[in-house]
Automatic annotation (TrEMBL), chain A:
The keyword Isomerase does not apply. One of its GO terms (cellular component) is periplasmic space. It holds the Pfam family SBP_bac_1. It comes from Halovibrio variabilis. InterPro entries: Bact_solute-bd_prot1, SBP. Belongs to the bacterial solute-binding protein 1 family. PANTHER family: ARABINOSE-BINDING PROTEIN-RELATED, DIACETYLCHITOBIOSE BINDING PROTEIN DASA. This is Maltose ABC transporter substrate-binding protein. It comes from the Bacteria. Residues 1-24 form the signal peptide. SUPFAM superfamilies: Periplasmic binding protein-like II. It is found in: Periplasm. Keywords: Signal.
Amino acid sequence: MRLARHLSVTTLAAAIAMSGHAQAQTEITVATVNNNDMVIMQSLTDAFEEAHPDITLDWVVLEENVLRQRMTTDIATGGAQFDVMTIGTYEVPIWAERGWLSPLDNLPDDYNEDDLLTSVRDGLSYNDTLHALPFYAESSMMYYRKDLFEEAGIEMTDQPTWEEVRGWAGELHGMEDDLAGICLRGKPGWGENMAFVSTLVNTFGGRWFDEDWNPELNSDAWVNAVQFYVDLLNDYGPPGASSNGFNENLALFSRGNCGMWVDATSAAGKLYDGDESDVADSLGFAPAPIAETPKGSHWLWSWALAIPASSENQDAALEFVTWATSQEYIELVGETQGWTSVPPGTRESTYANEQYIEAAPFADFVLKAIQDADPTDSTLEPSPYVGVQFVGIPEFQSIGTQVGQTIAAALTGDTTVEQALDSAQRATERTMQRAGYLD
Amino acid sequence: MTILRSATTAPRSVTGLRSAQSKRAMITVLGWSVALVIFFPIFWMILTGFKTESAAIADPTLIFSPTLESYQAVQARSGYTRFALNSVAVAFGSTFFALLLAIPAAYSMAFLPTKRTKGTLLWMLSTKMLPPVGVLVPIYLIFRDVGLLDTRTGLIIIYTLMNLPIVVWMLYTFFKDMPKDILEAGRMDGASTFQEVFFLLLPLTLPGIASTGLLSIILSWNEAFWSLNLTSSKAAPLTAYIASFSSPEGLFWAKLSAASTMAIAPILILGWMTQKQMVRGLTFGAVK
């Protein structure tokens, strides 16, 4: 009897203690993408919770497309399942315009907002107010194998052109067994082949839409750019190029199967890591090639942390996003995970850090590429949209994917480039009419 | 005459025996071929889980140095147990409620049919033809308003409703094959409807009910659309766990394979252990 009474008193005391503890704790749910930098962020949960004992983190880590669909459903319906969302430069202005994101105009003084790179900060702002904080940012650039270039007697120029690249690809192709002259994205998708093709079209002098939102997909610039891309990959690309996205090309290049590769700057750290890459010692970097104009020749993308307006834990969420995008966080990653693993492209201070510069010889290229990219002026002729490798309108996801599929069909030889672009033009016109942009 | 007949029939029976043997051998070879083709992706996935990331994307080979590094990476990142417990709870919970609702429904349709029974059955099945994404937003809004988002209860409700048409159909087929005379005999002895169902129908159709339940568990275990869309962290089952290992940036095949192997292992073992009952249930009443 005494034991029973003792037990009940102890249980009650424990319950009171636990309920008190639970009241003091705020649990925030962070939705993020399964990219290496975010996995590192998740692994540093303890560091955040130690510094913020009143906040605990709950993680939802998903593949990019699944996460995008999941977050869109939640934020559009006000489901309030997430307190922090990982979104990209494409979503931020669209979601901010609809009032789905909390404006971040109350950042703490020690956050050092002025340290953020201007182009990245502008890409995450709506009406001159930040609506998401950059976690990491990337542009595009060219990787090449210095050993093969030396062997072939080719000298890399300060600013390569696509014509030069075609010539070099022809010389390198087949120099070794299973060596493709150049690797480029071919897998259809608005974030896959169309990210690259859009920059190619930009530099060939094309644009997605004229100033009245009329699609220009069968213009001379588009035909020239896409024909160049199809010929280049068919003549000097790896077998099955139409199914290669970022990951597949990363694997090919790191195994030594590509002479050149034009893709995201975020691959640099992985290619430079001798444990993951067979070409770390012979890796060369160059700016993304240009053709008619340097405008829009390399993209700008950043993954950023935003707070949905529907979140009930705004203060705790702000604590977390400012911590995860701070200079201190970058230093923490550098010290615990190695300096090549720090999230790149967000802060001036990262590129002033000697330890980082020493560990990452590609830092200058990345910084310059990100600083040069201007999403508000990425085409030779004026265009009505914001975005280098995408068009910042909600309809672009479906348009980009559809056009990507027709270009992939041209790459595999199922249609000609002209047929593919005529079909893409008609489909885009229909979508724009239905969306009310055209009469 | 007798000798003559034996002499003429003997070679024919030997030929018949040979042809039966070769037929059986062909069926065996065909059966094994189909089984191997179906099992090969699972075998390859299990194999890939024991490779390094770079070996996983290299040219396919059966010769490699096995490593547990992918399993270690998977374990270090996410709480497998939490996801697995959610899967067990929703798969078994939804199957229990689906059977609870389907047994009386199938009984009524099999033994007390009306002129609308066939139509009702077809209508129930037609709900399976609707793409789930078509009703995602209304269901999401309902779940949000009643507080069922990211709860096991919410998933159990959805899975119960999702599997109900198939469970009713299967039970209806099994019940229909039961001779009505047995139930009538019970009724003559004064059994109530409940006793009739509980003491006669259920024991006699147990293999069918067991295989239906197992199928419902497997369908719930593997379901990914609703589990990914209606849960976030607390009620997320193993399908969400697998989805967290695919990545558009960086190599992930070995880790994804390790996570998938861990996710399907419990249901694979359950299926292996109960395969006799499943086959017996699925062929129940097929040969008369």
